[in-house]
Amino acid sequence: SRPTLMSSNEDVPADVEALEDASERSSQSEPDLNPEDAASDDAAHEHQQMDVGETSEAIESERYCRICFDHEDDEDNPLISPCNCTGSQKYIHSKCLKTWQFSVQISSPNHPLFQSQDERHKICSVCRQPFNCPPASRMDIIAEISGVPPRYISSGLALISTENENLLRNSESPTLLEVLFHRRWSHWNRAVYLITRVVQETEGQLLPGDAVKGVNVTAIMDATDNVREIQSELNEFISSLGSTESKLEPYYFRGGPVMPDHALAVGFVSSVDGMQENSSVSVICQGEQSFGIFGDAKEVALMLSECGIQKSDKEGKICVPVYIFLGHATWTRMQLLGEISRGSWGILPHDSVHDISLLLRVDLDEQDESQGEAPISHRIGLWRRMLQSGLVVYAQNNRMKDEFLERRRELMQSLSQF
C-alpha cells in the first residue's frame, strides 16, 4: 500500500488525492513487454543489416571500367585496380589506362622543361597515388608514331624544315603576326640544319636526355649582320694560318639562336691523327681519304691549316674553305624526335664527306624570284632542292601532327583579329 500523508481519508486534500489517482491510472495504462514482439523487432533489425551487406557485396561484385563503363573482363584486357581508389573509381581496363596514358604524353608540351610538370600519366588525379602500371616511355611513344628510331638522330643528319613551319606566314598576315614570326621562327623558316654533335646524357645537366647540336647551313651572313667585331677577330686569326699557296677561305653563317657570339666551324681534312683527345673538335663524317670535322672555330681552322682539303673557289683560286657558324641550335634527342613527329622537320641522312660538302657549297644558290629574296641572305635554292629531291623522309601521319597543326591554325586565326 502506498503511504499517506494523513491517517484519515476524510482529511486528505482533494488535489493530493487527484494526483495519486492520476499516477495510478498512468501505471495501469503502460503496456506489458511481449517477448514475441521483442523477437519480431530483433528480426527486422537483423534483416535490415543483411540488406545493407548484400547491397555492398553487389556493388563490389558489379565491377566496371571507370573510363568506358564496360563490365567486360578478360585476359587480353582485364579490369585492374591500378591505384588506391575505391568504389566506382576502383577499376579500369588495362588497355583503357594505357590509351589514356598515351594520350596525355603526346598532348603534353614538347619542350623537356615542361614535360616533367605533367604527371597525370604516372599519378592518379583522384587518390594522388602512383599507378602500379607504369606508362611506356615518351621516347618509345614518339619513336613509334614518327617511324624514326632514336639512333637516327646522329652527326651528319640533315634536318629540312617543312612547309608546316611557314603556316604562320603568308601575304595576308597582319603586321603583328609578321613581327612574331620574325622573332620566334626566323631561325627555322626555310632552314636546313646539319646535326654536328650528339652528347650522351650526364648527371646534373640542365635538360634530361642526350643533347643534340646542329647548325643552320642556309643562313649565310652578309654586310647587314652586326657581328663585324667577331668576324674581324676570326679573319685576322685565319689570315695568320694560311699559306700563300692555299689560304683558308672563311664563309660565315648565322648558325642558330643559342650562343650567337660563339663561333663554331665545319671543315674537311685529310687526316685526324693529330687531333687531341681533349680537343673540342670531333669527327662528324668520314670518307676514304677525308674527314669532316666540327668544333671551336679557331681549333678547326688550326687543323685545316695543317691538313685541310683544298678546292677551287669561284675565281678558280685554290683555297681551303672553313665554314664558320655564329650560334647554333640545341635539342634533346626526344625533343627533336617530337618536332619530327609533329611534322616540323623532314630528315635526310648525310653520312659521307661528299654529301656534307655539297650541303655547304655556297655557289649552288638560286635566286628565289617568287619571294624576291636574295640568295646571299637565305639559301632558298638549297632548301627547295632538298624538298624536291624525293629523298627527304617525313614522319607518318599521326595524332600528334594533327593536333599540332590544328593549334597552329587556331593561333593564326586569333592573331589575325588584331
Features of the shown structure:
single chain; 418 residues; alpha+beta; 12 strands; 35% helix
Polypeptide structure, described:
- The chain is α+β, with helices and mostly antiparallel strands.
- 35% of the residues lie in helices and 18% in strands.
- The protein has 12 helices and 12 strands.
- A hairpin with a 4-residue loop joins strand 8 and strand 9 (291-296).
- The longest helix is centred in the first third of the chain and has 27 residues, at 35-61.
- The radius of gyration is 40 Å and the shape is elongated.
- Residues 1-20, 22-33, 52-59 and 366-377 have low confidence and may be disordered.
How would a crystallographer describe the biggest sheet?
10 strands, mixed
Shape: elongated
Give the strand content.
Answer: 15-25%
Distance between the termini: 104 Å
Order of helices and strands: HHEEHHHEHEEHEEEEHEEHEHHH
Helix amount, in percent?
Answer: 25-40%
Mean pLDDT: 76
Rg, nearest Å: 40 Å
Spans of at least 5 consecutive residues whose pLDDT stays below 50 are 1-20, 22-33, 52-59, 366-377
Count of individual beta strands: 12
Structural class computed from helices and strand pairing: alpha+beta
Q: What's the helix count?
A: 12
